[in-house]
Amino acid sequence: MNTPLMDQTLALAAIFQAARLTQQLARDGRCEGAAFGTSVRSILKINAPGTEEIYGGVAGVVLGLRILRDKLTGKTEANDVEIARYVISLIHLANQLRQREPMQEEIRRGIETAESQMKFFEAGVESETVHPKLVEKLAELYTQTISTLSPRIIVNGEQGHLANLQVAAKVRAALLAGIRSAFLWRQLGGNRWQLLFSRRKITAEAERILKTLRGDTPD
Hints:
Elements (H helix, E strand, L loop, with lengths): L3 H25 L4 H12 L6 H4 L7 H11 L7 H19 L2 H16 L15 H13 L14 H4 L2 H23 L4 H6 L1 H14 L7
């Protein structure tokens, strides 16, 4: 059985993963397919029995775990400030959502509708891990709900990529996944003070989880 710290760490890693995917899409017009697929599918798992199942196992958030570990241990890169800004914005908007039950219900209905249509949204061709139509549905849901909250998340990147409708839809789907994980993180007892005063515990837990995953190599 997972400990509360493990569940909180997985959800927190998923927020960082969504932030990184958003950055990749906005800057490069593409992102890590497996991580994107996990993040998008996590939105649909509103009735999962546990945190690990939401992400299809801990391997589903390996990207986020590595970023979380590095960020909290001071291993920063030029792009990390932007990722941190996205994470803070996602947590802030999730807190606003917690106070708006009608919007929560609207999002739940939208997710349930998308989930019921999953049989029509089979994996696409080539490197796609989720069907573009599913991404489009979730992006629309984000626009109709989260985008109406303020302050809105300002995504920086290459205008050519952001003007691409498919890329823009993926960005919104990634942000919705981040909101979903931030909401879950708070439900699991996570709060901003932990990021300040429990950094060592979170870092150690992220490192412990990573060590259980085959293929993780020391930096």
